[in-house]
Amino acid sequence: MTQAFFEDTQHIIFEKAVVYGHHDERDEALREQLAASIRNTRDSRDLLRMASTNSRLNRYVVRFQNSLPKSIGPWIKQVRRPRMIWVRVPVACLLILGGLFSFLPILGIWMLPLGLILLAQDVVWLRRPLVITLAWVEKRWRSFKRWRQ
């Protein structure tokens, strides 16, 4: 609510500055500075949101990696390196597919989040929904564990 109000207020101020203040070149320069500051504010908010999402995703990855068997954890760490994209994307797709077929004996549901986490490292638009979903699942899991005790 506050963010929408802030953006609406900036937009109204900018429109009034354009309508009422067009007298000379100095006013034109001030309007351009105002427009640049509005763009920079939006860009910086997006960058902060992206940095926060990336750090939260990395925390989930490390936690998930530490919960995996010792033979798989270091391998996941190697696959997450930036130069391993040609290995990471196919492995992520196979893990997602394996997670969807978790009803089969060898495959498990654990493959689905691991595949999505690996894929989110390369698909930017997948990061934020994945972090939100992982936070929701973690919250539900904690409440289930408390209820069970």
Walk me through the topology.
Blueprint: H1 2-20, H2 25-67, H3 73-79, H4 85-100, H5 111-120, H6 124-148
List SSEs in N-to-C order. Answer: HHHHHH
Question: Biggest sheet, open or closed, and with what strands and sense?
Answer: none
- Strand count: 0
Approximate strand percentage: under 5%
User: What is the radius of gyration computed over CA atoms, rounded to a whole number of angstroms?
Assistant: 23 Å
Low-confidence parts, pLDDT < 50 over ≥5 residues?
A: none
List the domain count as a whole number.
Answer: 1
Overall mean confidence score, pLDDT: 76
The rough form would be described as extended
Task: Please work out how many helical segments DSSP would assign.
Answer: 6
Description:
- It is a single chain.
- The protein has 149 residues and is mainly α.
- It has one domain (2-148).
- The protein is 81% helix and 0% strand.
- The protein has helices spanning 2-20, 25-67, 73-79, 85-100, 111-120, 124-148.
- Helix 2 packs across helix 6, helix 4 (85-100) packs antiparallel against helix 5 and helix 5 runs antiparallel to helix 6 (124-148).
- 8% of the residues are buried.
